[in-house]
Amino acid sequence: MGWACSFLSPYPDPSRISMPGLPRFYPNPGSTHNQASCYQQPGAWAFLRKTTVILWLLLSSTSLAPTWGQTKIPLETVKLWAETFGRGLYDTVTKYSGSLLLQKKYKDVESSLKIEEVDGLELVRKFSEDMENMLRRKVEAVKSLVEAAEEADLNHEFNASLVFDYYNSVLINERDENGDYVELGAEFVLESNAHFSNLRVNTSISSVQLPTNVYNKDPDILNGVYMSEALNPVFVENFQRDPTLTWQYFGSSTGFFRIYPGIKWTPDENGVITFDCRNRGWYIQAATSPKDIVILVDMSGSMKGLRMAIAKHTITTILDTLGENDFVNIIAYNDYVHYIEPCFKGILVQADRDNREHFKQLVDELAVKGVGIVDQALSEAFQILKKFQEARQGSVCNQAIMLITDGAVEGYEPVFKKYNWPDRKVRVFTYLIGREVSFADRLKWIACNNKGYYTQISTLADAQENVMEYLHVLSRPMVINHDHDIIWTEAYMDSKLSTSKAQSLMLLTTVAMPVFSKKNETRSHGILLGVVGSDVTLKELMKLAPRYKLGVHGYAFMNTNNGYILSHPDLRPLYREGKKLKPKPNYNSVDLSEVEWEDQAEILRTAMINRETGSFTMDVKVPLDKGKRVLFLTNDYFFTDISDTPFSLGVVLSQGHGEYVLLGNTSVEEGLHDLLHPDLTVASDWIYCITDIDPDHRKLSQLEAMVRFLTGEDPDLECDEELVREVLFDAVVTAPMEAYWTALALNISDESEQGVDVAFLGTRAGLLRSSFFVGSEKVSDRMFLMPDDETSVFTMDNFPLWYRQASEQPAGSFVFNLRWVEGPESPREPVAVTASTAVTVTVDKKTAIAAAVGIQMKVEFLQRQFWAATEQCSAVGGPCPKSCGDSDLDCFVIDNNGFILISERSQETGRFLGEVDGAVMTQLLNMGMFKQVTMYDYQAMCKLPDHHPSAAQPLVSPISALLMATRWLMSELLLFLLEWSAWGSWHDRGAEAKTVFHHSHKHKKQDLLHPCDTEYPVFVHQTAIQETNGIIDCGGCQKIFVMQQIPKSNLLLLVTDPTCDCSVFPPVLQEATEVKYNASVKCDRMRSQKPRRRPDSCHAFHPEENAQDCGGASDTTAWLPLFLLPLGAWVLPPQLLR
To answer: In the beta sheet, which residues pair with residue 526?
Structure first.
């Protein structure tokens, strides 16, 4: 074909229609999203022809005389309807909300008020200091545990025949068939504790957890558990000294995990305990310094079948030991060298969760062939590491090569001489796959001559323990030096306590320190005993940045040295899969630039990474109401670092009313009287008084604690006096509203008036008042103002939606919004309408928002008022020429974002206008009445493209079917053997291998969504245009419409002619679409290395290190059927056992 994109004919026969000035279409060179050439898309011609038709129709509609349209839909009548409805609506809402009374009450006390400008830099410094003090107390607790553990080890002599009973977290309180406590399962008192998420715990003593694959009576385990009993009094003392402490624990290098307070541990649905403390980020980061790792995996033909499965699992296990301060790449080799991700050729990439998961998928697809030539692969690995070291890229600390092979290696010594000797700055760890021992000496020689470690991995269950050995080697320099580095982890979700849903979905950071053996006789071996740690919930940390100091739209956030979000109100770590909420795969590697995405130059991110203190101003588009709406704000960002941590803190204040704080004063006596009203509540998430330290205070609500504090009943209570003072003041000013609402409720007699359910108000101090006009059983939306409905109440992250929207409405104007029932099984229809307005106070030409007030009404009540208003007309003494009840008129009331509140067809209520009438919405956009705003979501989850392998092969040959069945039988047999502990000793290996297989199968079955970037439109009414009308030429007919703003609201009246079919116009949808990056752009994004700040310390080598402690042959005993299994698998085609 010879056509291009520069000019497109609008119609199949252009000669029939005269269209002067037809626009030309050019590709947008500035767009990076989905820029496919016209030549590459066969459907582009038809699509652009249709688009041109629509544009021509729009242009032609503006040239038609409007007089004909006015005779069909009288403009003055529509304007009258809008004014009448607006006036009646305003009267109703002001009457029931009492907004004018509340505004007057604040006006009356203006003379006693002060409005102060907020100093953002001073605020962020104060918050930072408070956080430093809190985190310092956690560090002190961890240090005391380290000292106690090292002293206990120094005084303990290893006893191979030690017999010792301890509280096993899985077995405690378990009884056998005779009713006796099982071994290691003595009685263990457990009580529910609010401080620990209401879990049943024992705050007097710790308990010990072991993974299923670790034998609970192994001599190493018994000696370690016995030695660590010395931590129990320290745990208790720490908790008494700092009652804000949460979990404290010791993770041993032998695999046991001592946790305080003691808790009952529950296996997963397969009866397996998969949690291994040595796999956790806090353990690995504390045990080793940052590292650059190149994994070399042998893909030669000899690695087929079971060996390949073990090699893949070994790689996955290594990847699980890496964190965001590490860098990695994987190279596969046989006859030639190839990067398993070609995009990463010649570089190292940050080992964040995204990249690790990406590598795991690629590893799963590896297939064997050819002959393994290791020298080329080693040379490639050394060159990458050398390049990054010289360029000061990557971790700039430890460097290592992991060689995974079945042993047929040669020609490697010249490579070491050229790249690594004599300094041996790159460690080489070797992993011999399979039971063949012929090449063991070669691989051990490689490891021992390059300061590494050699292990043999003959089963899937061997991988975990053997991979862990490299961490012990990397920890030696730090151990010998006795450098107790303090590490703080990135945000993560607690999986230690799978028994608690609340706990498992809580974002934490952990402070951890390594524990060393101080015995002189083992000094050169650098023995790591384990790691101690303590959790800090980020919710508790962010309470030190009180919400009331930040204004309606303000917030505080934290990020790590790598630029990843630690805490941010727009961080969405969970997604819904069916009825379950699950963590997103990349929830803790969301970059600051992906949340504050309008900072295109990354000025804010760079400054915070560099630990600077300063400020930055940016215009932002803030999504509201799950992305259906948007606020346009100018935000001031203030930032500083948090000393002795890898974290930086930011505070955001919106310009305008967000820059001011309102200060009032009243007597305690007067305030207390008005505070004690049954319909008054305060923000349950805000800290008015500290109630989570003293056990006697934990049962108190924030309101009860304030009352005790003010009356002097409990002198030990600590409260935020400024916030308490503001609550008292607001309670006094808003008290008359209760009497006003009560009088209204008593005077409602007419059934037609019973459409308003509840009146409510909220103040900037988190005070909330509400009053019902109907019985609770008649309320349309019972979730409204309930704590579980986070959009309608004050939370740690946000003011209520009705408050935030009202604050941006013009003074005296109400914002209306539909309310929906939340939940996966809720009916998709609106249940109520809220209307709210802001109450402002002005002192010395400074305006601050004091409160917002509003009502919730039934949808039907709003509709009744509207239909009554449209019975009005300008004709005097005669019938109205037109009515919304006429069959040739369609009337809608829509909000400023295009959502329908009122329609003649109830099923359209709540839908977006463009979805119902694409022609009118397209014309409104074209005329400038509405504006389309493009928003981006870099935390989205998208469905994977449908892929049905069988679709291309509807007919399966008998041989293929037989092979598939055989493969299935073999895998089932393999799983059976694993369950019966075919590999290794009975007490450890089978369970872990079973877990590996089960997890892999489960993951593939349920992995329906994947992280992605999306863009979506939001439509916003341009308030400068209050009315418009037009005629749309739809080909065979013309559609007339009139739009008029409804006064003192965010609503618009739209009247259209339904008799004209305008289906030539496609619907205008408010849908998110995945941003598709072409291969080149995608690769550039994956390779790009954003600026980051490296950890302050590095321990790569020590001259006293015993490099000859470099491993040996592992246990090779196995059950006979396992030797036969590869023989059975061997008869299958290689592609079935890649």
So the answer is: none
Reference 871, options 91, 86, 80, 92; nearest CA is 80
Placement of tokens 């459409």 in the chain? 755
Cα distances (Å, whole numbers) of residue 986 to 307, 1104, 1117, 1121, 1124: 22, 39, 12, 15, 19
H and E: helices and strands count for the chain: 30, 40
**705, two tokens:** 């604690």
754-811 pLDDT tens trace: 799 999 999 999 999 999 998 888 888 889 999 989 999 999 999 999 999 999 999 8
- Report the alpha-carbon distance of residue 1037 to residue 1033 in Å, rounded: 6
User: Between these two residues, 75 and 752, which has the higher pLDDT value?
Assistant: 75
**What is the C-alpha separation between 858 and 847, in angstroms, rounded?**
33
Say if residue 995's pLDDT is above 70.
Answer: no
pLDDT score at 1118: 36
Lookup result for tokens 């041993």? 252
In terms of Cα–Cα distance, which of 720, 721, 806, 797 is closest to 763? 806
DSSP one-letter string for 1040-1062: EEEEEEPTTBSEEEEEE-TTS--
Cα 1116 to Cα 456: distance, rounded to the nearest angstrom: 9
Number of alpha carbons in the 13 Å side-chain half-sphere of residue 778: 11
Q: Name the one residue in this structure whose structure tokens are 């982890």.
A: 489
CA dist 849 and 726 (Å) reads: 13
Select the more confidently predicted residue: 77 or 72. 77
State how beta strands 337-339 and 327-333 pair: antiparallel
Q: Are β-strands 1038-1045 and 900-902 bridged in parallel, bridged antiparallel, or unpaired?
A: unpaired
Alpha-carbon torsion 334, 337, 342, 348, what sign?
A: positive
For every residue of 405-432, which 3-state class applies, written as one string? ECCCCCCCHHHHHHHCCCCCCCEEEEEE
Task: Kindly list the distances between the CA atom of residue 9 and the CA atoms of 5, 138, 297, in Å, as whole numbers in the listed order.
Answer: 10, 71, 57
Rg (CA), the chain: 34
Distance of CA 295 to the CA centre of its chain: 30
How large a percentage of the chain has pLDDT more than 70?
A: 83
- C-alpha 337/C-alpha 349 separation (Å) is 18
**What is the rounded end-to-end Cα distance, in angstroms, of the chain?**
43
Residues 6+ apart with CB under 8 A from 888: 72, 1057, 1058, 1059
**Distance of alpha carbon 540 from alpha carbon 518, whole angstroms:** 36
Q: If DSSP codes are grouped into helix, strand and coil, which group holds residue 67?
A: helix
CB 432 within 8 A of CB 445: no
Compute the Cα dihedral for 901, 904, 907, 913 and give only its sign. Answer: negative
The residues, any chain, with a CB within 8 Å of residue 672's CB and separated by 6 or more, are 707, 710, 711, 728
Distance of CA 55 to the CA centre of its chain: 41
Q: Tokens representing 119? A: 């100093």
Q: What is the Cα–Cα distance from 330 to 1112, expressed in whole angstroms?
A: 25
Picking from 802, 827, 768, the residue whose alpha carbon sits closest to that of residue 624 is 802
Please tell me the pTM assigned to this model: 0.85
Q: Side-chain half-sphere of 951: how many Cα atoms within 13 Å?
A: 4
pLDDT band at 859 (very low <50, low <70, confident <90, very high): very high
- pLDDT for 972 beyond 50: no
Phi-psi region of 569 (alpha: psi -120 to 50; beta: other; left: phi over 0): alpha
Strands ordered across the beta sheet of 890-895: 900-902, 890-895, 1051-1056, 1038-1045, 1027-1033
DSSP 792: S
Q: What is the pLDDT of residues 1050-1101, one digit of tens each?
A: 999 999 999 899 999 999 999 999 999 998 888 998 888 888 998 888 999 8
CA distance 134 to 830: 45
Q: pLDDT at position 886, please?
A: 84
